[in-house]
Design a protein that fits this description.
heterodimer; A: 268 residues; alpha/beta; Rossmann fold; Ribosomal Protein L24e, Chain: T; 2 domains; seven-stranded mixed β-sheet; three-stranded antiparallel β-sheet; 7 helices; 19% strand; globular; B: 389 residues; alpha+beta; 4 strands; disordered N terminus
Amino acid sequence: MIRRAILKAVAVPGHQIPFGSREMPLPFGWGTGGIQVTAAVIGPGDVLKVIDQGADDTTNAVSIRRFFAATAGVRTTTRTTEATIIQTRHRIPETPLQEGQILVYQVPIPEPLRFLEAREMETRKMHALADYGIMYVKLYEDITHHGRIATSFNYPVLVHGRYLMSPSPIPKFDNPKMNCLPALQLFGAGREKRIYAVPPYTEVKSLDFEDHPFRAETVAQACAFCGAESSFKDEIIIDNQGNRLFVCSDTDFCRQNRENGQIFLGGK
Amino acid sequence: MYVAAKGGEKAIASAHELLARERRGNPAVPELILEQIEGQLFLAVDRTMGEGSLYDRELASLAIRHACGDLTEAVFLLRAYRTTLPRFGVSLPLDTAKIQLRRRISAIFKDLPGGQVLGPTFDYTHRLLEFETAARRPEARSDLPRNPKSQNPSEACSRAVDFLNAEGLLQEEIAEETAAEPGDLTREPLKFPAGRDVRLQNLARGDEGFLLALAYSTQRGFGKSHPFVGEIRSGLVVVFLEPEEIGFAVEIGEIEVTECQMVNQFTGSATAPPMFTRGYGLTFGKNEKKAMAMALVDRSLQVRELGEAVDSPAQDEEFVLYHSDNVEASGFLQHLKLPHYVDFQAELGLLRGLRAAEEKKREDKEDERAELAGVEPGDRLRGFETAGV
């Protein structure tokens, strides 16, 4: 049943497919959609990586990885390049994904229009008619009020020029990575009972205006551990004086850099 | 220096160990056995089975003990188990006229065939704590009378609403013949507009507190509701299954249920004549409050069928059906405890940017104004200070 929904989702990129989501041993809102999608596509030969906030060692990522190691008996890894399936919450790995890999997103609210229109019957109509006016009006209002689009994560995208889609709450920093990605991207929303997908090499465009083109945020600080400048950072408060440290949110990317000799020796 | 910003496997394992220890309570006191929960906290068991959509007293008791008495958590445990079970088929509709009555009351007729049967109920008790029982030590008792067997178990007891039905004053319940089987939310996602079968299933699984509040809101004017308790009955009913292969009904067991039929005044609309309309509630075990709340909400959700206007939350099908499930709700609410560093970091960046832009705009504007007025920035500050004196 879930595989059928996934096939349909891949065939209609960005379109939300309802499915009979079940209770999982983890609570709704904690990755049950991702878990069901991963469980539906995983096989004995797969190598699974699970990240939350970009990191393999966050508690929920640990918990989900252990769940699959115990129930599916698959090999797990923390290395992006080794994984065939990566289940993620809130990030896309910094290391570019390849053909044959599957990125499974955990999605809390699959409907990109939900906070503009609470009713499913209305939003379904809007998708059917590709009527995304309210979203453009919202972005326009942001620009008139703030001079820019005031959405920093879960930034709406248009898939294959047709369906408006929520990229899940990834920072908009990650949005450009979705475009024409060689890997298959699957999205599972367990509580809301929806699956959607972006097939490999599909156009994913972050919404914008001609005179206000989309801009991913830039990261000003280099990583305190590996020195990487281009990666997304976690800001960590290190003492009661409120001093801060910036480190890569993607722990595997950070590790690679350090192993390749890009070690930052400053060590505050 | 190293900052332990992320948790690990060890932390999880220790947390679970702590929980197990806390769950056990004082080790000098014997652990609760399931028979005690099943036999003495049966209303908690009934609620857990109802919202857990699984009729199994023992497993519900186990879930309650495992959840340390948190019924929402117990419901979740039961549901997570339930979803692993195969589905053999759909039973025949329960015939609640053939119920083995424990309790039966009607608020619309003083007396009726079958009579009013009060049964075990909190109604009319004085809610006074029995302090003298607090210090009682656990002991088995054999001197108490056993529960009396219900009378005439085989005799059918017609429902109070059937008498109204006979007069044609009551909205007719017409079975929807479009689907061979009733919908099942545990296998198919909710779709709108939702059929009555799916709505009732959703309400039966729905959170008691949520339905209670919604039902209450209709009584207080958020939704037109003028309900009468047509009848509440509870007792044991037999469940029949008719497997295709053998072609006749087989009794597969007995379950305890509470059924509520609400009768609502209705003055008619453009599409429906004046009549009494009805709401239906059914729960596992003894759960009158939930059955009544369910019946009120079932009625208020019939706006579409009865051609009424939707002007309150309890009439709004998407609002009610999407938010009634406490397993979904508590999971999503509690996921806020999961790390959100990445999104928060992105928001921090945005907010800092917005504030910097605003600050710059304000400074530019002030400079411009000062220039126009020919005032030095310092004078402007002084003027501001004296204004407060």
